Amino acid sequence: MNKLTLIVFLLPFLSACLPEIPDMSLLTLYKDDIRQGSVLERFKINQLKLGMSKIQVQDLIGSPSIIDSFHNNQWDYINHSTLHKKDDIHYRLVLKFNDDVLTHINTTGIGSLSQLTDKEKEAENKRIGDEKEAKKLKLLKKKQ
Question: Contact at 8 Å (CB) between 42 and 115?
Fold first, then answer.
């Protein structure tokens, strides 16, 4: 018991003689990711198109965070997520409808979402190319 007591009392005095104090953090607090609101992906948001129905929008990106009773034709997707060891995510996507048809998409608040992966970019480019081809074919059919 006397040796243990001596070691405990001498340890602070001996550590004071060290040129630098080594990192001796014994406890680190655990911080969990806190996700609040609608979790959206940029890839899915890019697939939104004017003219879609409310059901199509809901199937694509899910239910909105807020449907305001004063603005029945506006859906808000809001997210405030605090991520441990990563950048926080805060965004607001606003969709406006007229008679159940999507008429306005406000994506100015989604800057904190992660960028598209290479695979998603490839799929996005393919989707855009397919849409352009479909429009060209539609125009050609109208001309004939």
Answer: yes
d(CA 144, CA 133): 17
Predicted structure pTM score = 0.63
Closest to 40 (Cα-Cα) out of 106, 92, 96: 92
DSSP state of 76: E
Q: Which tokens is 71 given?
A: 């603005």
Is 104 a residue whose pLDDT tops 90? yes
102-135 burial, b for 16+ CB within 10 Å, e for fewer?
Answer: beeeebebbeebeebeeeeeeeeeeeeeeeeeee
Report CA dihedral (125, 52, 41, 134) to the nearest 10 degrees: -10
Tokens of 119: 């695979």
pLDDT above 70: percentage of residues in the chain: 85
Q: How far, in whole angstroms, is CA 101 from its chain's centroid?
A: 25
